[in-house]
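A favour, since you know our structure tokens better than I do. Go ahead and set the record down below.
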Amino acid sequence: MTVRRADGHFEELRAGSLGVRLARDAAEIDAAQALRYAVFYDEMGAIPDAPALVSRRDADPFDAVADHLVVLDHADDTPRVVATYRMITPEAAAQVGRFYSADEYEIGPLLAFPGNILEVGRSCVHPDYRGRQAMQLMWRGIAAYVGRRKIDVLFGCASLHGTDPDRIAAELTYLKSHHLAPPELRPRALPARYVEMQRLDPAMIDARRTLVTLPPLIKGYLRLGGWVGDGAVIDAQFNTTDVAIVVHTEQITERYLHHYTRGTPEDP
């Protein structure tokens, strides 16, 4: 593995032909939006509004103020965006007037947190790159960003496919029973959108088997010691059931953080 110098907040991290860094320009953000459209709309069944249908881009007002993490395949002369992840700082959210998660969750406890917070979301990976290497690079990029920005808490909305909570009753029940955030950091679904997560008797669930069925990104958050908020939210447009995720970065072990950021020099 090698490290390549890049613009932005941290070095580009390389593994074979793949690299991860922040998007450098509008063209790379556009490529990330095109990938998001292909995954969310073409593959996962989200319902595009008229502008999205015409542009074939998943875009919203947060894109203009966010940092966009991208995994690129450098195998060809022109690097190709094959995975992406969006990060919104409080300063960026202030330009829009809110965090994205506030449309689904009451996030007052997070806004009152005395440390540095970061909203994360809009994560997707091209179907051809959903193996270990791309996901490892994604997490290395997240860890590098967190380290450079001295982030204390990550939060955001993570999705399970489908809008029938009873079809994912075991997963929702498992998350609430085993990973509910402490009250001082716990988002709660807005009353009009609140869906109870504990849908089964927790004692009847095979926790190990249920963990395997969770989406890879949610499992990644849980490995970092992450928690979920109170209540799920149905997102009919995106054909998902969302849960709030909270990760206190102090819970990332030194070994884990070192594993995903080793070899990256300090910022100049």
